Amino acid sequence: MTRATVALDAPAAAVRPRRTLALWSAFAGLRHFALIPILLLIWEAVVALGWVNGNVLPAPSAILAALVDLSEAGLLWSDAFASVMRVSVGFGLAASAGIALGLTLGIWTRVAAYVNPVIELIRPISVLAWIPLAIMWFGLGNGSAWFIIFLGSFFPIFTNTYLGARSVAPIHLRVAQCFGASRWLYVRKVLFPSSLPFIIAGLRVGLGVGWTCVIAAELIAATSGLGYMIQLARTMIETEKVMAGMVVIGVIGFAMNAAMLALERKLIPWARTR
User: Fold this and answer.
1) 88, 41, 77, 78: which is closest to 61 by C-alpha?
2) CATH code where residue 234 lies
């Protein structure tokens, strides 16, 4: 074999270990889901053997059939889209308000001393308690759902952002002061980057709470969405469709959390997320 042949074969040989490593990494990620099919098989067997009433707890095959029926009818996609859109609006408003207020109160501590007691008084109130007021104020539909999602998402985002703003290392503040940094420059170059891990954590929690809240709001105060679909199936005693809706809620929630983890790895790569 000549030197030229060896030189040409070297890149190809170097690619093989990388491909093997990528395949192994993909397999290692999938093995974490190995328990799910096992549990589904046990569940299916328990129902098939008659140990559990299939009308009370439908088998996975019945739930899958309900998912297919709802999908073919177009109801599943329209309701899922309605829920996701409501969360996008409510969560977006909550993220904007929570981050802005958290950073603001992190800078102006004297103002925070007056505002924080009001927030801490409202924060423990369950979002379910706000649903009757939301219906009276905004009626049935998107307005009340946006309001409920906003309330559910706002407090985790604000609390984490404020904690991050108050956790800036004093040495960073003193360095900014020594260099004569303006308040806006301090916020942009010191306060926000230092608070970013806390902000991302608040956004993850807030998005999860907001997704839960939209389902609760749609159960009572909406005429579309996954929550409304579940409520309608309950009135018709179609348990398999109720659980089909629950499966879709879980899958979308899982995808949302995965998206937030990807955002976290992108914005704060030094943070280890699993």
Assistant:
1) 41
2) 1.10.3720.10
In a domain, 176, yes or no: yes
Helices (runs of H) and strands (runs of E) counted in the chain: 12, 0
- Clarify whether residues 126 and 193 are in a common domain: yes
> How far is CA 183 from each of CA 104, 111, 148, 168, 187, rounded to the nearest angstrom?
11, 16, 34, 14, 6
How far is Cα 218 from Cα 238, in angstroms, rounded to an integer?
Answer: 18
Cβ neighbours of residue 245 under 8 Å, at least 6 residues apart?
A: 79, 226, 229, 230, 233
Which residue is it, tokens 């307005």? 143
**pLDDT tens digits, residue range 220-230?**
777 788 888 88
Rounded Cα distance between 80 and 252, Å, is 9
Tell me, yes or no, if the pTM score tops 0.90. no
Domain count for the chain, please give it: 2
81 and 24: one domain?
no
Q: What is the 3-state secondary structure (H, E, C) of 105-118?
A: HHHCHHHHHHHHHH
The residue range of the domain holding 167 is 74-267
